[in-house]
Amino acid sequence: MQTSINWTFGRKLALGFTLAVLALMLIGISGYRSTAHLIENDRWVAHTHEVRTKLADLLSLLKDAETGQRGFVLTADESFLEPYASALPGISQTLSEIRALTSDNEVQQRRLTSLQQAVESKLAELKRTVEMRRGQGFEATMKVVQGGEGKSLMDRIRRAVGEMDADEAALLKRRNSEAEMSAENTKSVILWGSLIGVALVGGAGTLISRSLASQIGAAVHHIQTSSAELQSAANQQATGAKEQASAMNEISTTISELLATSRQIAESARRVSEIAEQTATAARSGDLTVAKGHESITGIRRQVDVIVHHMLDLGKKSQQIGSVLEIVSELAEQTNILAINATIEAAGAGEAGRRFGVVADEIRKLADRVAGSTKEIRGLIDDVRSAVNTTVMTTETGSKAVEAGADQFGLVAAAFTQISSQVSTTTEAAKEIELSTKQQATAVEQVNVAITNVSQATKETEVSTGQTLRTAAELSHLSRELLRLVQPQLESAVRPTMNS
Amino acid sequence: MSPVLTDPKALSLRAEFDRSFSQSANEARSDHVDFLTVRIAGDRYALRLWEIQSLHAERNLVRVPSLLPELLGFLGFRGVLTPVYDLAQVLGYPGGLAARGLFVARSEQPIAFAFGEFESHLRVRADRISQPEPGTRTSVEGLVSDEDGSRLPLVNLPLLIENIAARIKALRPSQER
User: What are the structural domains of chain B?
Assistant: First the structure.
């Protein structure tokens, strides 16, 4: 039961139509066979009638030939031979036709052979008597006729024809009986088959109708539910389509801004390309300047070496001055000591040594000044040596800095060469960026067009969504109508639910 | 002909040199006291010039063993064998300090002192010498202010000599025994 309920409409309809077709096929086959059998019996009946007719024709032709022979024998008038002459070809042909018609009947064939011999004998007797009448006259011919051979052969032919006709009549009777029976069978098959077919088709139709009504009703319920959901979905889709249309407008505006930005980028890239070319020119010029700077640095380096040499020489001379000054300082100290001792001695000498004491004091003062000046000079020499040392160290540091500067200049020159190369690469890259940005702008324009198309499509979608909404409403209405057509009682029960 | 001087320091030296010759000898010596200034372990000291017989630079001593640690050795001055004492140790400094100069004191007995470094001859007015309080006898007997305003302790050389003589005298009986 569950399986039959779950069958599809096609299967159920196919089952019903298959039963009906099978019934019609059975009825048709039975009727066809009965009708074919009936037609076959009729053909055999007609066949039998034809055989009997041919037998009657043969007997009639033989009578015609015998009638002509008799008239000629009695009158010797050639005109009486006309039936005889016209019957001869027909007799032979009729015999051939009878042989062909009874070819399936061995008994009739054997009888026909006997009949054909009797006919040939009769025709020979007729021909002989006709020839005798012409040649020997009436009397001689009458003797032969009276001999009875002709009558005997004719009787023999009549008996043979009669036997064959009787046999054919029996066959005819049997075939008539079979034909009537076949006709009855055909009528019965058609009558009962039609009744059974009508009953089967009616039953199947009723079952299919009930089943389909049930399934279609359930399907219509589903359709109604789905129509409501479709209406809801269509409403949501319409809202979404409106929001999508709004978003598309915003996207279109953004794409327009993006397009403007891309054009600005393309313009900037073009300017970058120009500046990169100018930078490349400047880098090449800078390369030459760096080379000149490198030559200047080399000259400065030589001058610094000379300065260092002179400073070292000055340092040595300052050291020599310091050494000499040490001796001068010691001399001044000794002079001072001597002057002090002289002063002491002069003081010890009393009044006599006073003048000497004055001189000694002057000497001491001079020695003091020499010592002080020597100290000053030593300080100055120390300052000079310190300055020389500082200058030498500074100059050496400067020389190292100059060397480092020269190296840096070399690196700068290499860097300028690299910069020139990289600026060329940058120029190419900037051109490629410019080209790419133009392509990007073109692509953005295409995107803008596509977005416009999408926006238009969205609006159309919005319109079609409205159409879908209306279609869903119509579908819901149609489903109720269909339900009413299929299951009126259910439709009346469902309507309040749907309305609620 | 002297070269034309432009440096301020050189000009100052030249002016001082010329002024020294412009002063009279009597003017220079009136109311002034002569001192020697020496350095001992970085400290400046003043010595009265009239208490000193002669000043000498560093000379080679003849070192002898002694019970007095301040006795450095002996030297001959004008044919007189003279003991040389370490002025730093006599003044209370630790021994072993460098001594580049020495002087012979004016005394009855020959005696000399070695000191760290001779600095200069100092002549100051008498009023710039602060006298010690009466009754005090210390190795330093007042202060001397130089031209820069620095105050140098004045070494009481006679007292030092007396102290050394007293110590020698205190050692002598024990040696005789």
Answer: 30-176 (2.40.50.180)
Report which of A348, A420, A305, A47 is spatially closest to residue B54, judged by C-alpha positions: A348
State both tokens at A474.
């119509």
The whole domain housing A186 covers 2-207
What distance in Å separates the CA atoms of residue A67 and residue A69, rounded to the nearest whole number?
5
Give pLDDT tens digits for A471-490: 878 887 887 787 777 766 65
Q: Does the residue A370 lie in any domain?
A: no
Helix (H) or strand (E) holding B128: none
Q: CB distance A343–B121 less than 8 Å?
A: yes
Q: Do the Cβ atoms of B121 and A340 come within 8 Å?
A: yes
Selected residues 305-334 of chain A with any CB under 8 Å from a CB in chain B: 333-334
Q: Which residues of B touch A368 (CB under 8 A)?
A: 120-121
Residue A192 backbone phi and psi in degrees, to 5: -70, -40
Q: How far apart are CA B46 and CA A451, in angstroms?
A: 110
CA distance, residue A368 to nearest chain B CA (Å): 8
Whether A341 sits inside 8 A of B57 (CB atoms) is no
Rg (CA), chain B: 20
Interchain proximity A343–B34, CB inside 8 Å: yes
Q: Flag whether residue A376 sits within 8 Å of chain B, measured between CB atoms.
A: yes
Q: How many CB atoms lie within 10 A of CB A361?
A: 21
pLDDT tens-digit map of A93-138: 999 999 999 998 888 898 899 899 999 999 998 898 999 888 888 8
Instruction: Name the domain count of chain A.
Output: 1
